[in-house]
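Butyryl-CoA dehydrogenase: structure, please.
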Amino acid sequence: MDFRLTEEQEALRESVRDFAREVVAPVIAEHYEKHTFPYEVIRQMGKMGLFGLPFSEEYGGMGGNYFTLCLALEELARVDSSVAITLEAAISLGAMPIYRFGTEEQKAQWLPKLISGEALAGFGLTEPGVGSDAGGTQTRAVLDGDEWVINGSKAFITNSGTDITTLVTVTAVTGTRPDGSKELSTIIVPSGTPGFTVAPAYSKVGWNASDTHELTFDDCRVPAGNLLGERGRGFAQFLRILDEGRIAIAALAVGLAQGCVDESLKYAWERHAFGQPIGNYQAIQFKIADMEMRAHTARLAYYDAAARMLAGEPFKRQAAIAKLHASTIAVDNAREATQIHGGYGFMNEYPVARFWRDSKILEIGEGTSEVQRMIIARDLGL
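Here you go.
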């Protein structure tokens, strides 16, 4: 096995790294502090083709694959996770369901703008009273003639309320199966549809420059043709989407963990104590060495999961391992980076303060650490 990147992959990584340092870094602290969405940054990411990385050229994509997306996410997250999660959610949760399961008509209607970054889409799965138990979905959609009538609510939905959000795909109960279980389907709801209300943005602990809202649907009517994929296959669809998304979140978490190493190395030579740089002290050296070890091993985990996915092999367990491990070490590295920075690590002017606040959600979003352990255990036959 060879985990070295190709020249093309290395070139992509370098270009995104430069973009993150030169375009994102100078402005993101202000956006984070003011809780504003970085539209100009997103626009430039669209021009670079980042929103089209894993999509075929047929729909305006870059013709790459999921691994190239992961490389971009890692480099963005080394500087800021709000921008990285905007890209991850826009692709993995926004455009990918339409790309994977949509009709040719749906793809032609929605994908070009999503892939160009001109528009964003959200994925309405989680509900206020139903988190990891997605099978407990309460939102319902009833077919009335040639329209679906949707009632219910969704929580913690990323990219759902920006000025360029164009749609949200919603999982809803559309009937009852012969065995009495719920029939779940996925339906496209365009922004601005009557009965579709976007609540004010959440006040969050982290990811302050990303967009997250609660959504409500009150007799919201959309055409019957907005059904995404086969009726009753919504549960299977979102399981596949989340399996893939866990690899992307792992890459994002690795980026945050590596960013903690970057900032700690820099600070270790800037900060002096007892007459010399703190980087000369073994206590600091060992902390940074452990941080680098964690980032490196987590990177190998998501590389492996992505390789299996692209080879068409089973990857559910490996994706769960990558997501679980990467999110855990991201929190560990953020804590250690804050400690190395001392009092300055508690100040918002230093990136590690953002890293510390942004890291925790990685153990929760797109499947909690407990869910990842459950997936791993079940795949082992337990």
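Notes: The chain has a mean pLDDT of 96.
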